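Quick question, first post here. What does this chain look like in 3D?
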Amino acid sequence: MKNRIKQYRAAKVFTQKDLSKRAGCSRQTMNFMEKSKYTPSLSLEFLIADILEVDIIELFIREQKEGGENND
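> Answer (accepted):
Ran it through. Tokens below.
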């Protein structure tokens, strides 16, 4: 899942360490999330969105499967 964590974090002038501390995860986990190498739990997604004061839909981008349909 792609996200805009880095952009919104930078807009709030938070470092990865600042945001990870507020979200209760490691800086390395935050780094992996920003690089879309780790998909956080839904509760962590909501927490990060709350911390960054942004709607979760604006922060996380659900990728389409081939054919353009989401069959989840």
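The mean pLDDT is 91.
The chain has five helices and two strands.
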